[in-house]
Each structure stands twice: as structure tokens, then as C-alpha cells.
# Entry
Amino acid sequence: MELETGRNVPDLALNADPETGYAVYYSTAQNQSATWVNQYGGTSFVAPQLNGVSAVLNSGRHDRIGFWNPQIYHFAQSSNSPFTALNSTTDNNNLYYTSQGNTVYNQATGLGTVDFNKLNSAFSK
# Structure
């Protein structure tokens, strides 16, 4: 598989779709009972999640992981990659995006989805 060169956006694919996204428990006013509201999404949810994952992966280490980008692009090319590239050559259409088949990186979903346990192991080596 070929790794695209240069900097594109995004690096990873996380769920920001409000149709399959997140339920939020909140109150609209002080002293009002909170309720669950469904179907929120977007980068406003994904960015803090990735920040939280970074904090968890850094916890318990003697030094910080550091800047992810050079490391994750290296990991993506390994035989035990923590990423699942969204690069099917047969089923590559989700109604909104048609992938670039047989690539490690594509311009709509980056390196793909992440197995955070495998990513943690990769950072630990």
C-alpha cells in the first residue's frame, strides 16, 4: 500500500456523526432537572475525546508520548498497525464519501479508525 506524502486533513477517523453520535445529560437552567438528549456530534465531541485518550495513554508513563503525528504515521505502516484504513476497493461508499482504495492514508478519513489498545502498545515500544 502507498502512503500519501505531504500534510492533509484529518489524521484519524473518529465518530463525529450526530446521527450515530452521543447522548448528553444536561440541564438548561440552574435548579432544573437534567435530562438525556440524543444525537449530538461533530468535532466538538471528538476533539475532547482524543484529548482524553492522550491523557490516559500518557498516564503511568515516566515521560510523555510527545507529538503524535510522526509516530502514528510510522505505526500505520507496520504489520501490526493500530489503524484500520477506510480503503476498501469493493465497499467504499458510505453515501457521503468514496474512499481511495489500497492506501494507508486517504484525504477524508486519514489513517482510519483506531484500536487504542494497539496504539498504546505501539507507543510503549
